[in-house]
## 1
Amino acid sequence: MTRRRILFAALSLVPLAAACGSKSDTSEASKVIAVAKTTTTSSTVALPLGKPSRIVSLSPTATETLFAIGAGPQVIAVDSFSNFPAEAPVTDLSAYEPNVEAIAKYQPDLVITDGTNTELASQLNKLGIAVLEAKAPKNLAGVYQQIETIGAATGNIAAAGKLSTKMQDQIIALIKTYTKPTAGKVRYYYELDNTFYSASSKTFVGALMAQLGMFNIADKVDNSTTAGYPQLTPEFIVGENPDVILLADSKCCQQNAETVAARPGWSEIRAVKAGRVVVLDDDIASRWGPRVLDLVQTIVLAITGVTPDPAIIYES
């Protein structure tokens, strides 16, 4: 499984199948459905009511969220990419090439995935296993909603709501600390790997940058076939002369300010000359859980004080 396939998760959402229960379960079931109905699952098996005790997470983002809302003791296994927090029970389960039989051996009462494998939910459903597909959101509102969805599905509604509210407040406060340039926009290049794949404003991370008033050079070449993840050329990037370069490939591809500056012609890019090549944590940059706050903080620090080129005409 390549990093590229892992990064290019589908962003579409599917409705939640209705859960059933006795009259005594009605209130709790309605909470689950009300919070989760716009998220995530094609499960034909009703989500468990109360607190499921044997959760398997096949999504690093979901794993981080589960532990952040206090559902860690309910988690019995997580996929091999779920490397945070340290206490997560990491296994060799693969989220991208899943083995249904291996998952079933854990006898889970709930499996949470990121929805990138379209066949997995139906395969697990046939075994009577409920599935929650927590797909990549399109914006910060989707992040907060998904945290509350996972909280509802795991019986941690109050804790999830508290975390969601806290994140919103802190991110709003961070964004308010950033003073946008009086003229123009900060132009940026967001690098997913060293073959110059990028993320346009149609993606979650791109939408996040847009909230800060930044201009994404990848938007110029994104189209219906690239689905938010166009592959740029070195010549195009140099020609666009971005003010900031954000590297989300430091771990996978060993990229940093020095390797970027060594690329032919890149030493003349404004971002390189001004020391604005920012190394992001690959994991944090590719997930949409509680650590989104860390990503926002890193970006705000990176663009504070940047003066865009006044000669550039910015597209609306």
## 2
Amino acid sequence: MGSTFGGLEIGKRAILAQQAALNTTGHNIANANTIGYTRHDAILKATNPFAYPGMNNSTAPQSIGTGVEVTELRRIRDLFLDGQYRIAQQAAGYWDAKANALTSIEGLFNEPSDSGLSMMLDRFWGSFQELAKNPDSLAFRTVVAANGKAVADSIQAISRGITQIETELTKDVSLKEGEINAAIKEVAALNKQISLLTATGQQPNDLLDKRDLLIDNLSKLVGVQATPGQNGMVDLKVGGVAIVDGMTPKTFSVNPQTGAAMADGNAVTIDGGEIKGALEMLSGTGSSSIPSLRKNLDLLAGAIASQMNSLQTSDDARNLDDIAAQTQVEKILFFVDKDDPTKPPKDAASIMVNPQLLTSPGKIAAAKSDFTSDGSNAKAMADLQFQKITINGSQTTIGDFYLSIVGQLGLDVNGAIQASNSTAAVAQQVDNRRQSISGVSLDEEMTNMVRFQQAYNAAAKYVSAVNDMLDKLINGL
């Protein structure tokens, strides 16, 4: 038979095991709303039995149970779903960054609306139609100059807005670069702590949770691949290049102007995440990237300025001063560079109406002869609305070229928003599956609490019963 005092040891082990299970349940409940927390499960196992020869068969060993112990506080986590979630986060971060940037840029164009550039161009061309009918009217000339200024101001405003968005995106990339490097260092530091604790047989569950949350966040920022290392450590790579190698963090850097990324001097190909989305907007070649939009806006401004200036300064063009002098007094550009009004604009950011035309609208060359009633040049300017010219290697009108910019931007915005919504939904769906496994269910924990509490009470009663038996045995005989 077993030891007389063995019952007390069994009872003690039962109490300690159920208490540990209760404490684990309490820890789960306490962290029910903690972001990144993984629920724990106390794994109970029967302790090794005592073996001794049986009375009826001394050669056959017999055994008697010795109680229970907690062998592990297991994190309930699905590594496959972790990987799927991080892949989904990588795509969601990429499209979210693109959708936000594109939506901001689309707001600059404000189309279609009465204050959009398309409507301003229509008013501009329309005012030349009226001037062609009333070429000697200073009032109509003033309207032409004002509408021209509105067109130039609108183009300038869009250009400034694009530059502001570019500046904000560049700052955002720099901030995210800092976040990434901070997370890289923290993951490496956690690797060191986890490795030391694991090597001594401890279970650093809460540190593992903290590290997993950092990796989740990194996956949305830059798209990382995590692979298990020794002693519970994890290695992180971006585009196949290590950014965390065991306990060693690498310095991650990004050049927003070129889109190049490095990790301790090694070139990195960024596969996804918010950083990739921002870099594609800053330095990409897509139709609605900032470089492409700026180029097209410059082409638009250049086309408007060159066509208008060509007619305004042609050899047969006449303004009211020329007509009064019966000869062309001087050639005055219609659209000029804001930094040098004697020259045509160099880009969309510098286009403006010649200040001389705003103060002296009689200098608008509406005629092609020395008669004040001649509005033929104004008519030619109005006809620019429908005239096909070569812009960026294609035959198109100024209005159609502008609408192609806005139309393509609209398509890209809608596509990015739809992709952002769908990838975010996929990430949420995968996370819901993760939480169904790893998250804390208060109903389940309450059930476990009752179960462990009852077992604890029963173990305590068992110890009391054994104590009474021993008291009777020792003191009652």
## 3
Amino acid sequence: MNEKRGTKLIAKNSRASFDYFLSQFLEVGLELTGTEIKSLRNHGASLVDSRVIMRNNEMYVLNMNIPIYDKGNIFNHDPKRTRKLLMHRQEINKYIRAMQEKGFTIVPTKIYFSKGRAKLEIALAKGKKLFDKRETIKRREDEIKIAKAIKGQKDVD
């Protein structure tokens, strides 16, 4: 991401696009403690196997790993604790309806800093079947072959 605009990518969930069909992306805030912010700035985070759930008409992210802050004390955070998402009520209702009616789930796709604040990008996701995953792999390999062929032609000229 562009440093001049004030955005800095921390982590990306690359498995999400492989395991799910993604649609309707949304930037949301995260309710974090001080040591979590410091750890994000120093060490990053992991979004592998993380997902978003609904509890008491609020959204929470599960299994997002933010490593323990090295210079923290006994009040350091739990790395895999459940973290609340900061969203408007209309956005929450829209995503809840999509989850209940259409069989979608919500997955985090990336975490980044925007103007000094930690943001999480979430997306509505529908699970892929095995043949869909194979198709994704085949399409990716074809794109690589095409890119290599184009690069080879440029080198020859």
